[in-house]
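Sharing a chain and its predicted structure for anyone who wants a worked example. Both blocks are below, sequence first, tokens second.
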Amino acid sequence: MAPAPFGAAVRHDRYKPWKIAVLGDPMFTLGPRAPRFKDVPPDLLDPLTDVGEHSMRDLILRADDEGASIRLLEHSMAGTLTPDEARDGAPALFRTGRLQELEQAFRVMRADDRVALADYAWLASRRPSVDLSHVLKDLLRPGQIALDAVELSKRLPRGEAITLLSDARARVRREADLTLIDQALREVR
């Protein structure tokens, strides 16, 4: 049976058939194995290292977070960072641990992109060394506005915290959210 890709085992006895056993791999293919590359040959990578319009996306498609982060930082320092590059590169910044630089990327992004990537900013802000509070004021997530506002109010100066909580209170309807915000307002005042 070894060279056979697929086969059925049978029993010779006088009883009714009750089970069919299938042996082998149904995905087995005949012929030599296809060549596989562990790394992409360098001559194929040359066009991807261009500094063209879509270079950030090319780096991300190659899963080169380090390269994408560096490209984003270079464009940011040169003042040429586009909203699309900021949107595409923000997850790479997060994955490579460059959390302080996320603030600049979020400032350049369009509003709808900031909302779509808000979780990256919220996750990064949980690190004590990262201060994204000014970015997060505009990124209170739907469905958890009260929780986000209360968490963020603890990091803001008193006046800004009161304003944030008051604005958030006007946006929520659930009684539990209103109670949570009222309690935070009492603590801040």
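Comments welcome. Residues 53-127 form one domain.
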